[in-house]
Design a protein that fits this description.
Elements lengths: L1 E5 L3 H11 L6 E5 L2 H10 L4 E5 L7 H9 L9 E5 L4 H9 L4 E4 L4 H57 L6 H15 L4 H10 L12 H4 L7 H7 L2 H9 L5 H12 L20 H15 L11 H10 L7 H8 L2 H10 L3 H16 L1
C-alpha cells in the first residue's frame, strides 16, 4: 500500500518513512517538495497521504485543496502534520477534506497507530468499492439477459402471428427496418431506436385472436367482418400489456395504436396527433408503406414511388408529418431495405410459376 509523505524537513521525512515501513505491506514514498509531490499524485493513487502544513511554495492547506480537486484522490485519507494546534487551522483543514491530524514533534507510536488504522480503513474502503463494482457488473449482466429474453419472446410471438397470417412474407423484417430508419431520422437515441425496431414486428400480434374465416379470407371483408378484424389492436394490447419490461410495454403500445390516424379517424380509440404514442406513429408509416409495396392475393404490389406519393399525400391526415418527412429524407436507405429483404410470398409464387413451366 503506497503511503505518500510530503515534508520539506529531510529528518522528519526519514523518521516517518522508517516508522511506516514497520507496517506490513506499507510502501512509503517520501517527497520533500510539495510541487513535485503534486506531480507524482497526478499519475498515482496512494492509500494514505501525510503532508506537513508549513512548507515553501505550497502550504498544507493549499496542497490539500489541490488533492481533493482530483476525483481519483477524493477518497484517499489525508493526515496533516503541524506544530500549530489552533482550532481555526484544524477547522480550515477539515473543510478542505483533511481526515486526521498529527502534532509535531511526531510521537512515533502515535504515527504508527494512526497510519495502521487509516490503512485498515482504506483496505476496507477498497474492498467495498470492489464489491460494488462486482455488483454493478452482475446487475448489468442480469439486465442484458432480461433484455435478451424479452427480445427473444417478442421475436417468437411475432413469428407465431406470422404462422396465422402467411401472407406477411418478409413484411415483419422490412417494416421493422423502415421503423428504425424513421426513428433515427427523428433523432431518437440509439437505445430507443433499437427497442422500436425490436418491438415493431409485434404490431399485428392481436391477429392471433381473429378467426381464420376472416383472417385468411381472400378478397375484401364485409362490414361485420371488418369490425371483427378491427379488434386485433385491442387483442394485441391485451396480450402484451402490464409487462415490467420496457420493450414488451412498447410492443403493447404499438400493437394498440398502430391503426390510429393523425387526424383522429383511426381505430380502435380514435386518438389524434401526439396523443398517439410516437413508436405507434412511426410503425404506422412503416407498416402501410410495406403493405402497399407487397404483393398480396387480393392486390398487386405498388411501386415504391407510388407508395411514397401515398404517404406524402396523407401526411397530416393518416400519418404524422414528421414521421413521413423522416422516412422520405432517407429514400436511398428505404430502397436498400426493400431490396435487401425480399417478399417470401412473392418468391413462393415465382417458384410455383417456374415449377409449372418446367412440368408443362
Amino acid at each position: 500500500m503506497k503511503v505518500l509523505l510530503v515534508d520539506d524537513d529531510p529528518t522528519a521525512l526519514h523518521i516517518a518513512s522508517c516508522v511506516l515501513r514497520r507496517i506490513d505491506g506499507a510502501d512509503p514514498v517520501a517527497i520533500a517538495n510539495p510541487v513535485e509531490a503534486l506531480d507524482w499524485l497526478k499519475e498515482n493513487n496512494p492509500d494514505l497521504i501525510l503532508i506537513d502544513q508549513i512548507m515553501p511554495a505550497l502550504d498544507g492547506l493549499e496542497m490539500l485543496e489541490r488533492i481533493r480537486s482530483w476525483p481519483h484522490l477524493a477518497e484517499v485519507p489525508v493526515v496533516m502534520i503541524t506544530a500549530e494546534t489552533s482550532v481555526s487551522l484544524r477547522v480550515a483543514a477539515l473543510e478542505r477534506g483533511c481526515t486526521d491530524f498529527l502534532t509535531k514533534p511526531i510521537i512515533v507510536p502515535e504515527l504508527l497507530v494512526r497510519a495502521q488504522n487509516l490503512l485498515r480503513l482504506r483496505t476496507g474502503q477498497r474492498l467495498l468499492n470492489d464489491q460494488a463494482a462486482m455488483l454493478r457488473v452482475q446487475v448489468d449482466d442480469a439486465t442484458a439477459l432480461l433484455r435478451q429474453q424479452a427480445q427473444e419472446l417478442v421475436t417468437r410471438l411475432a413469428h407465431a402471428a406470422e404462422f396465422r397470417d402467411p401472407e406477411t412474407g418478409g413484411h415483419l423484417e422490412r417494416m421493422a427496418g423502415y421503423a428504425g430508419l424513421i426513428a433515427r431520422g427523428l433523432g431518437i437515441d440509439e437505445d430507443e431506436c433499437n427497442q422500436i425496431v425490436q418491438a415493431a414486428p409485434m404490431h399485428d400480434i392481436g391477429k392471433i385472436g381473429i378467426p381464420d374465416a376472416i383472417l385468411l379470407k381472400p378478397g375484401r371483408l364485409s362490414g361485420p367482418e371488418m369490425l371483427v378484424m378491427r379488434q386485433h389492436p385491442a387483442i394485441g394490447h391485451d396480450i402484451l400489456r402490464g409487462s415490467a419490461h420496457k420493450l414488451i410495454e412498447m410492443a403493447a403500445e404499438i400493437a394498440h395504436a398502430h391503426h390510429e390516424k393523425f387526424d383522429g379517424t383511426g381505430y380502435p380509440r380514435g386518438l389524434s396527433g401526439t396523443a398517439i404514442p410516437l413508436p405507434a406513429r412511426i410503425v404506422a408509416v412503416a407498416d402501410v408503406f410495406d403493405a402497399l409495396t407487397s404483393a398480396r392475393a387480393y392486390k398487386p404490389a405498388w411501386s415504391l414511388e407510388e407508395a411514397r406519393a401515398f404517404l406524402i399525400a396523407n401526411s397530416g391526415s393518416h400519418f404524422d408529418p414528421s414521421c413521413v418527412a423522416a422516412f422520405v429524407a432517407q429514400w436511398s436507405a428505404v430502397v436498400e431495405t426493400f431490396q435487401a429483404i425480399p417478399d417470401r410470398l412473392a418468391e413462393a409464387a415465382q417458384v410455383a410459376t417456374l415449377q409449372g413451366f418446367l412440368s408443362a
